[in-house]
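Hi R.,

Here's the chain you asked about this morning:
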Amino acid sequence: MCELLGMSANVPTDICFSFAGLMRRGGQTGPHRDGWGICFYEGKGHRAFHDPCASAQSEIAHFIRHYSIKSKTVICHIRLANSGRVALENTHPFSRELWGRLWTFAHNGQLKGIKQRPLTHYHPIGSTDSEHAFCWMLDRLRQRWDHAPRAAALDREIGLLCAEINSIGVFNLLLSDGRRLFCHCSNRLSWLTRRAPFGAATLLDEDLTVDFSRETGPDDVVTVIATRPLTRDEAWRTMAPGQLMIFRDGVASR
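And the predicted structure, written out as tokens:
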């Protein structure tokens, strides 16, 4: 299975520390060597980087690890291919426009029969079941509303769509329009929120420690979501199967 990494913060924040741990799992401490990608939102736009190579050996990943791109919302994915060949077009996260916002999607798990579901407006570029599921979700949202609905209605609908897809397989999901980060757990997803008083944290996959009290302000709130905990000395929480959590500015609204 692939692994996910997401971040939601109330101030532009870099993800270099967490990304350093995840990239080692891409072909070094883990088997996820079939590509990786990351998206940083900046206002209504984003910077996206993809590479079909293992992140542990990727020069692009090395650059991202050491280049402090600050963002309030980040989605990252390392791939272990099970549907679709190893290719740039099959690397997550995937992005499409809806209601004047750029939506980004990353998933792990297998979805039996998802490609049999017809698509109307959105169509995959690659051959993964994940991208087909993303296009199907956006189709359903676009068919229901021709403009962005109220947040509560959108939250309910995304929850229903996640439950429907989850019924045909494993659907661990990160989804965002740059403002909020939707996180759906099928069988494995963990999260933690860092806020004052900040302390130090050490990665599980690399001998690297950061003292966040030196890197953050007193009002900063940063939530990190990952398939498996990335640090050894912090209290990660485990999401329940079927649970949908929504973060905005680092704070859970659901």
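The chain has a mean pLDDT of 94.

Let me know if you need anything else.
M.
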